[in-house]
Design brief:
- The protein has 90 residues and is mainly α.
- It has 3 helices and no strands.
- It has 2 domains: 1-39, no CATH class; 42-90, no CATH class.
């Protein structure tokens, strides 16, 4: 939950900076206590299948969410479309 909230906060902060909304309502949402352990819900080999499952209309959103979650740690390297579980990140 904290990971999803963090992603939402970042997206909405950008919308505020771009003048699309006046304030970010997500900053008022409390995060879960640190004692709560979040589990990754996608294994590395599941990421390409996850992205492929989205329709063409929502595919950019799915890619944005993966970029927001993984950032520079992207296990699929520079392009998820060329990634496989044996491809080194880079």
């Amino acid at each position: 939950m904290n990971n999803a909230l963090g992603t939402l906060v970042v997206c909405l902060n950008n919308a505020v900076e771009d003048g699309l909304i006046a304030t970010n309502p997500a900053v008022r949402v409390d995060r879960l206590p640190p004692a709560h352990i979040e589990r990754d819900y996608l294994r590395l080999g599941e990421i390409p299948r996850y992205l492929d499952a989205w329709s063409e209309v929502y595919r950019p959103l799915a890619e944005l969410l993966m970029e927001a979650v993984y950032g520079s740690r992207r296990p699929w390297g520079s392009d998820w479309r060329t990634w496989s579980s044996t491809t080194p990140a880079g």
